Amino acid sequence: MLTLTTELLSLRTRHPFIIARGGQSDYRTVMVRIQDADGNEGWGEAAATRFYGETLETVQAALPTYAAQLGDDPGQLEAIEARLLAALGGNAAARVAISAALHDLVAKRAGMPLCRWWGLDPAAAPQSTFTIGLDTPDRLRMKVAEAEEYPILKVKLGGADDLMVLRTIREATDKELRVDANCAWSAAQAVAMLPVLAEFGVTLLEQPVAPRDHEGLGRVRAAATIPVIADESCVTARDIPPLVGKVDGINIKLAKCGSLREALRMIAIARAHHLQVMVGCMIESSLGITAAAHLTPLVDVVDLDGAALLAQDPFVGATIHGGQVRLPDGPGLGVVRR
Ligand code: MG
Description:
- By secondary structure, the protein is of the alpha/beta class.
- The chain contains 11 helices and 15 strands.
- Magnesium ion binds near residues 207 and 251.
Protein backbone atom coordinates (compact mmCIF):
# COMPACT_ATOMS: atom_id res chain seq x y z
CA MET A 1 0.00 0.00 0.00
CA LEU A 2 1.08 3.58 -0.60
CA THR A 3 0.65 5.81 2.42
CA LEU A 4 0.30 9.58 2.37
CA THR A 5 1.36 11.98 5.10
CA THR A 6 1.37 15.77 5.07
CA GLU A 7 3.28 18.62 6.65
CA LEU A 8 2.34 22.30 6.75
CA LEU A 9 4.97 24.69 5.35
CA SER A 10 5.00 28.37 6.33
CA LEU A 11 6.68 30.50 3.70
CA ARG A 12 7.47 34.20 3.77
CA THR A 13 8.53 36.28 0.80
CA ARG A 14 11.42 38.71 1.23
CA HIS A 15 9.08 41.56 0.26
CA PRO A 16 5.28 41.65 0.02
CA PHE A 17 4.53 40.16 -3.41
CA ILE A 18 1.86 42.35 -5.03
CA ILE A 19 0.16 41.75 -8.38
CA ALA A 20 -2.89 43.37 -10.01
CA ARG A 21 -5.35 41.49 -7.77
CA GLY A 22 -3.47 42.04 -4.48
CA GLY A 23 -0.73 40.31 -2.56
CA GLN A 24 0.87 39.39 0.74
CA SER A 25 4.10 38.20 2.41
CA ASP A 26 2.97 35.05 4.19
CA TYR A 27 2.06 31.90 2.31
CA ARG A 28 1.27 28.44 3.60
CA THR A 29 1.65 25.35 1.46
CA VAL A 30 1.33 21.64 2.17
CA MET A 31 4.14 19.12 1.71
CA VAL A 32 2.86 15.70 0.67
CA ARG A 33 4.91 12.55 1.31
CA ILE A 34 3.98 9.23 -0.31
CA GLN A 35 5.72 6.14 1.00
CA ASP A 36 5.78 2.66 -0.53
CA ALA A 37 6.00 -0.67 1.33
CA ASP A 38 9.83 -0.66 1.04
CA GLY A 39 10.13 2.75 2.71
CA ASN A 40 10.88 4.71 -0.49
CA GLU A 41 9.42 8.20 -0.30
CA GLY A 42 8.22 10.70 -2.89
CA TRP A 43 7.54 14.35 -2.11
CA GLY A 44 5.28 17.03 -3.57
CA GLU A 45 3.97 20.48 -2.63
CA ALA A 46 0.46 21.94 -2.80
CA ALA A 47 0.50 25.73 -3.29
CA ALA A 48 -3.17 26.72 -3.17
CA THR A 49 -4.31 29.96 -4.82
CA ARG A 50 -7.65 31.52 -3.96
CA PHE A 51 -7.99 32.80 -7.55
CA TYR A 52 -8.24 29.18 -8.71
CA GLY A 53 -10.65 28.26 -5.91
CA GLU A 54 -8.22 26.68 -3.46
CA THR A 55 -7.04 27.54 0.05
CA LEU A 56 -4.88 25.77 2.60
CA GLU A 57 -8.11 24.45 4.10
CA THR A 58 -9.47 23.02 0.84
CA VAL A 59 -6.12 21.29 0.21
CA GLN A 60 -6.18 19.74 3.69
CA ALA A 61 -9.82 18.69 3.20
CA ALA A 62 -9.19 17.14 -0.23
CA LEU A 63 -6.02 15.15 0.50
CA PRO A 64 -7.62 12.31 2.54
CA THR A 65 -10.05 11.65 -0.34
CA TYR A 66 -7.12 11.44 -2.74
CA ALA A 67 -5.03 9.32 -0.35
CA ALA A 68 -7.75 6.66 -0.47
CA GLN A 69 -7.29 6.40 -4.28
CA LEU A 70 -3.54 5.70 -4.36
CA GLY A 71 -3.58 1.89 -4.49
CA ASP A 72 -0.25 0.08 -4.23
CA ASP A 73 1.57 0.67 -7.54
CA PRO A 74 2.97 4.20 -7.96
CA GLY A 75 4.00 3.33 -11.53
CA GLN A 76 0.34 3.44 -12.56
CA LEU A 77 0.60 7.23 -12.88
CA GLU A 78 -2.07 7.65 -15.55
CA ALA A 79 -4.59 5.41 -13.77
CA ILE A 80 -3.96 6.96 -10.34
CA GLU A 81 -4.33 10.50 -11.67
CA ALA A 82 -7.57 9.50 -13.41
CA ARG A 83 -8.88 8.05 -10.13
CA LEU A 84 -8.02 11.26 -8.26
CA LEU A 85 -9.92 13.37 -10.75
CA ALA A 86 -12.90 11.00 -10.71
CA ALA A 87 -12.98 10.99 -6.89
CA LEU A 88 -12.91 14.79 -6.58
CA GLY A 89 -12.55 17.31 -9.43
CA GLY A 90 -10.86 20.71 -9.18
CA ASN A 91 -8.37 20.95 -6.30
CA ALA A 92 -5.48 21.13 -8.78
CA ALA A 93 -2.86 22.19 -6.22
CA ALA A 94 -3.78 19.27 -3.94
CA ARG A 95 -3.73 16.82 -6.87
CA VAL A 96 -0.42 18.03 -8.26
CA ALA A 97 1.27 17.56 -4.89
CA ILE A 98 0.33 13.89 -5.18
CA SER A 99 1.30 13.75 -8.85
CA ALA A 100 4.73 15.23 -8.06
CA ALA A 101 5.23 12.87 -5.11
CA LEU A 102 4.37 9.84 -7.28
CA HIS A 103 6.73 10.97 -10.05
CA ASP A 104 9.43 11.57 -7.42
CA LEU A 105 8.89 8.09 -6.01
CA VAL A 106 8.86 6.30 -9.37
CA ALA A 107 11.96 8.08 -10.68
CA LYS A 108 13.76 7.47 -7.36
CA ARG A 109 12.97 3.76 -7.65
CA ALA A 110 14.44 3.90 -11.16
CA GLY A 111 17.51 5.72 -9.78
CA MET A 112 17.16 8.59 -12.24
CA PRO A 113 16.42 12.32 -12.10
CA LEU A 114 12.82 12.81 -13.24
CA CYS A 115 13.75 14.75 -16.39
CA ARG A 116 16.12 11.96 -17.47
CA TRP A 117 13.45 9.36 -16.66
CA TRP A 118 11.30 11.35 -19.13
CA GLY A 119 14.18 11.22 -21.64
CA LEU A 120 14.97 14.94 -21.44
CA ASP A 121 18.30 16.77 -21.41
CA PRO A 122 18.55 18.95 -18.28
CA ALA A 123 21.00 21.25 -20.08
CA ALA A 124 18.22 22.25 -22.52
CA ALA A 125 16.38 24.40 -19.92
CA PRO A 126 15.96 28.06 -20.96
CA GLN A 127 16.80 30.99 -18.69
CA SER A 128 14.28 31.95 -16.02
CA THR A 129 12.89 35.41 -15.44
CA PHE A 130 12.77 37.07 -12.02
CA THR A 131 9.54 38.85 -11.13
CA ILE A 132 9.22 42.43 -9.92
CA GLY A 133 5.82 42.90 -8.22
CA LEU A 134 3.89 46.16 -8.02
CA ASP A 135 5.54 48.66 -5.67
CA THR A 136 6.65 52.23 -4.98
CA PRO A 137 9.47 53.75 -7.09
CA ASP A 138 12.06 53.40 -4.29
CA ARG A 139 11.18 49.78 -3.65
CA LEU A 140 11.08 49.00 -7.39
CA ARG A 141 14.64 50.32 -7.69
CA MET A 142 15.70 48.21 -4.69
CA LYS A 143 14.12 45.09 -6.22
CA VAL A 144 15.84 45.69 -9.57
CA ALA A 145 19.15 45.96 -7.68
CA GLU A 146 18.41 42.74 -5.77
CA ALA A 147 17.67 40.95 -9.05
CA GLU A 148 21.15 41.75 -10.36
CA GLU A 149 22.03 38.15 -11.23
CA TYR A 150 18.90 37.65 -13.37
CA PRO A 151 19.27 38.68 -17.02
CA ILE A 152 15.51 38.87 -17.69
CA LEU A 153 12.95 40.64 -15.49
CA LYS A 154 9.21 40.02 -15.48
CA VAL A 155 7.34 43.19 -14.54
CA LYS A 156 3.91 43.01 -12.97
CA LEU A 157 1.57 45.69 -14.36
CA GLY A 158 -2.14 46.38 -14.07
CA GLY A 159 -1.79 48.62 -11.00
CA ALA A 160 -2.58 52.29 -10.50
CA ASP A 161 0.46 53.68 -12.33
CA ASP A 162 1.88 51.31 -14.93
CA LEU A 163 3.82 54.08 -16.65
CA MET A 164 5.66 54.89 -13.40
CA VAL A 165 6.54 51.22 -12.92
CA LEU A 166 7.91 50.84 -16.45
CA ARG A 167 9.79 54.14 -16.34
CA THR A 168 11.33 53.41 -12.92
CA ILE A 169 12.48 49.93 -13.90
CA ARG A 170 13.76 50.98 -17.32
CA GLU A 171 15.74 53.85 -15.78
CA ALA A 172 17.32 51.36 -13.37
CA THR A 173 18.28 48.66 -15.89
CA ASP A 174 18.70 47.89 -19.59
CA LYS A 175 17.82 44.20 -19.12
CA GLU A 176 15.20 42.37 -21.18
CA LEU A 177 11.74 43.10 -19.71
CA ARG A 178 8.61 40.98 -19.98
CA VAL A 179 5.23 42.15 -18.71
CA ASP A 180 2.37 40.38 -16.92
CA ALA A 181 -0.87 42.36 -16.49
CA ASN A 182 -2.67 39.52 -14.63
CA CYS A 183 -6.04 40.15 -16.40
CA ALA A 184 -6.18 43.81 -15.27
CA TRP A 185 -6.75 45.55 -18.60
CA SER A 186 -9.63 45.75 -21.07
CA ALA A 187 -8.70 44.85 -24.63
CA ALA A 188 -8.82 48.57 -25.56
CA GLN A 189 -6.51 49.47 -22.66
CA ALA A 190 -4.14 46.68 -23.60
CA VAL A 191 -4.01 47.78 -27.24
CA ALA A 192 -3.35 51.35 -26.07
CA MET A 193 -0.52 50.06 -23.88
CA LEU A 194 1.25 48.28 -26.75
CA PRO A 195 3.18 51.35 -28.03
CA VAL A 196 4.14 52.11 -24.41
CA LEU A 197 5.46 48.58 -23.94
CA ALA A 198 7.37 48.94 -27.21
CA GLU A 199 8.86 52.26 -26.07
CA PHE A 200 10.27 50.53 -22.97
CA GLY A 201 11.56 47.56 -24.94
CA VAL A 202 9.17 44.98 -23.49
CA THR A 203 9.54 41.64 -25.32
CA LEU A 204 6.53 39.61 -24.11
CA LEU A 205 3.02 40.32 -22.76
CA GLU A 206 1.30 37.87 -20.44
CA GLN A 207 -2.48 37.79 -19.85
CA PRO A 208 -3.46 41.39 -20.66
CA VAL A 209 -7.23 40.81 -20.31
CA ALA A 210 -9.81 38.79 -18.34
CA PRO A 211 -9.50 34.98 -18.49
CA ARG A 212 -12.62 34.40 -20.60
CA ASP A 213 -12.05 37.35 -22.94
CA HIS A 214 -10.70 35.30 -25.83
CA GLU A 215 -11.92 37.86 -28.34
CA GLY A 216 -9.97 40.53 -26.42
CA LEU A 217 -6.85 38.37 -26.41
CA GLY A 218 -7.21 38.02 -30.17
CA ARG A 219 -7.53 41.80 -30.61
CA VAL A 220 -4.43 42.44 -28.52
CA ARG A 221 -2.48 39.78 -30.37
CA ALA A 222 -3.50 41.18 -33.78
CA ALA A 223 -2.21 44.61 -32.77
CA ALA A 224 0.95 43.40 -31.01
CA THR A 225 4.45 42.92 -32.37
CA ILE A 226 5.51 40.92 -29.29
CA PRO A 227 4.21 37.48 -28.21
CA VAL A 228 0.96 37.48 -26.21
CA ILE A 229 0.83 34.61 -23.72
CA ALA A 230 -2.29 33.20 -22.01
CA ASP A 231 -1.90 32.38 -18.31
CA GLU A 232 -5.18 32.74 -16.38
CA SER A 233 -7.03 31.88 -19.65
CA CYS A 234 -5.24 28.53 -19.88
CA VAL A 235 -5.67 26.19 -16.93
CA THR A 236 -5.74 22.67 -18.44
CA ALA A 237 -5.23 21.07 -21.86
CA ARG A 238 -8.85 21.56 -22.91
CA ASP A 239 -8.38 25.36 -22.69
CA ILE A 240 -5.79 25.30 -25.47
CA PRO A 241 -7.81 24.68 -28.68
CA PRO A 242 -10.15 27.68 -28.11
CA LEU A 243 -7.08 29.92 -27.67
CA VAL A 244 -5.53 28.98 -31.01
CA GLY A 245 -5.24 32.12 -33.16
CA LYS A 246 -5.91 34.36 -30.14
CA VAL A 247 -2.50 34.07 -28.45
CA ASP A 248 1.08 33.18 -29.30
CA GLY A 249 1.61 30.87 -26.37
CA ILE A 250 0.41 29.45 -23.07
CA ASN A 251 1.75 29.55 -19.52
CA ILE A 252 1.56 26.17 -17.76
CA LYS A 253 1.55 26.07 -13.97
CA LEU A 254 1.35 22.79 -12.07
CA ALA A 255 -0.93 24.30 -9.41
CA LYS A 256 -3.43 25.14 -12.20
CA CYS A 257 -3.33 21.96 -14.27
CA GLY A 258 -3.18 19.51 -11.36
CA SER A 259 -0.79 16.89 -12.73
CA LEU A 260 2.64 16.48 -14.28
CA ARG A 261 1.13 14.24 -16.93
CA GLU A 262 -1.44 16.94 -17.76
CA ALA A 263 1.44 19.43 -18.09
CA LEU A 264 3.12 17.10 -20.61
CA ARG A 265 -0.18 16.80 -22.53
CA MET A 266 -0.47 20.61 -22.56
CA ILE A 267 3.03 20.94 -24.01
CA ALA A 268 2.23 18.42 -26.76
CA ILE A 269 -1.10 20.06 -27.63
CA ALA A 270 0.42 23.55 -27.65
CA ARG A 271 3.22 22.36 -29.95
CA ALA A 272 0.67 20.78 -32.30
CA HIS A 273 -0.92 24.23 -32.59
CA HIS A 274 2.45 25.99 -33.08
CA LEU A 275 2.10 27.78 -29.75
CA GLN A 276 5.00 28.84 -27.55
CA VAL A 277 5.14 27.17 -24.15
CA MET A 278 5.97 28.88 -20.90
CA VAL A 279 6.17 27.26 -17.48
CA GLY A 280 5.39 29.40 -14.44
CA CYS A 281 4.74 28.96 -10.75
CA MET A 282 3.00 30.22 -7.64
CA ILE A 283 4.78 31.39 -4.50
CA GLU A 284 6.06 27.99 -3.39
CA SER A 285 9.19 26.41 -1.99
CA SER A 286 11.89 24.69 -4.02
CA LEU A 287 9.92 21.46 -3.64
CA GLY A 288 7.08 22.67 -5.88
CA ILE A 289 9.40 24.71 -8.11
CA THR A 290 11.64 21.71 -8.80
CA ALA A 291 8.71 19.56 -9.97
CA ALA A 292 7.98 22.25 -12.59
CA ALA A 293 11.68 22.71 -13.35
CA HIS A 294 11.92 19.11 -14.61
CA LEU A 295 9.62 20.21 -17.49
CA THR A 296 11.84 23.12 -18.53
CA PRO A 297 13.87 21.24 -21.19
CA LEU A 298 10.57 21.09 -23.15
CA VAL A 299 9.59 24.78 -23.00
CA ASP A 300 10.53 28.16 -24.48
CA VAL A 301 9.95 30.55 -21.58
CA VAL A 302 10.60 29.89 -17.90
CA ASP A 303 9.31 31.87 -14.94
CA LEU A 304 10.20 29.74 -11.94
CA ASP A 305 11.24 32.34 -9.40
CA GLY A 306 8.66 31.38 -6.72
CA ALA A 307 11.27 30.03 -4.32
CA ALA A 308 13.81 32.73 -5.21
CA LEU A 309 11.33 35.31 -3.87
CA LEU A 310 11.32 33.62 -0.43
CA ALA A 311 13.23 34.85 2.62
CA GLN A 312 13.86 31.22 3.60
CA ASP A 313 13.39 28.06 1.59
CA PRO A 314 12.93 24.78 3.50
CA PHE A 315 14.28 22.76 0.54
CA VAL A 316 17.18 22.64 -1.88
CA GLY A 317 16.27 21.58 -5.40
CA ALA A 318 16.43 23.24 -8.81
CA THR A 319 18.40 26.48 -8.67
CA ILE A 320 18.65 29.54 -10.88
CA HIS A 321 22.19 30.84 -11.32
CA GLY A 322 22.58 33.91 -13.48
CA GLY A 323 19.07 33.18 -14.75
CA GLN A 324 20.00 29.65 -15.86
CA VAL A 325 17.80 26.88 -14.44
CA ARG A 326 19.90 24.04 -13.05
CA LEU A 327 18.23 20.76 -12.20
CA PRO A 328 19.54 18.67 -9.31
CA ASP A 329 21.49 15.48 -10.11
CA GLY A 330 19.80 13.28 -7.50
CA PRO A 331 17.15 10.68 -8.35
CA GLY A 332 13.48 11.66 -8.57
CA LEU A 333 12.84 15.36 -8.14
CA GLY A 334 16.26 15.55 -6.47
CA VAL A 335 14.93 17.76 -3.68
CA VAL A 336 16.43 17.56 -0.18
CA ARG A 337 15.58 19.32 3.06
CA ARG A 338 17.76 22.27 3.85
MG1 MG B 1 1.03 35.26 -15.13
